[in-house]
Amino acid sequence: MSPNDLSPSLSPEEAAELYSCSGWGREFFSVSDAGEVCVHLRDGESTTPVSLHEIALGMKERGFDFPLLLRFQDLLDAQIRDLNEAFIKAIADHDYRAPYRGVYPIKVNQQQQVIDEVTTFGRQYH
Fold first, then answer.
1. 68 against 3, higher pLDDT
2. C-alpha distance from residue 90 to each of 20, 71, 79, 95 (Å)
3. What confidence tens digit (pLDDT) does each residue in 38-81 have?
4. What share of the chain is helix, strand, coil (3-state, %, to 5)?
5. What are phi and psi of 13, to 5 degrees?
6. What does 32-52 look like in DSSP terms, one character per residue?
């Protein structure tokens, strides 16, 4: 199946497979029963799927122009946690004696909000 094969009868499961949501989106993205891509955001101990289509409609209603860059704190937090936990496990598995200190290259994203979030989420890992 290719994107050119899309038809109104494409099921959410087929769309998720076609676009390989599980391959790139991990547990953070899925296709809803309505056929919309959803981002899964933390809601306490559970997650809530939020339609990207609905987010876009809401932004349009508020007068924002497209394209938009959406940044989700949950995803940044999870990436920082996963990276650090992987190094912690590898260090323990290989009896490595030096500490790991992640370094955030400021050149990647210089927005103050992003740097603040990286600092906040990464604080527990020094």
1. 68
2. 28, 29, 16, 8
3. 999 887 788 889 999 999 999 999 999 999 888 888 888 888 89
4. 45, 15, 40
5. -65, -45
6. -TTS-EEEEEEETTEEEEEEH
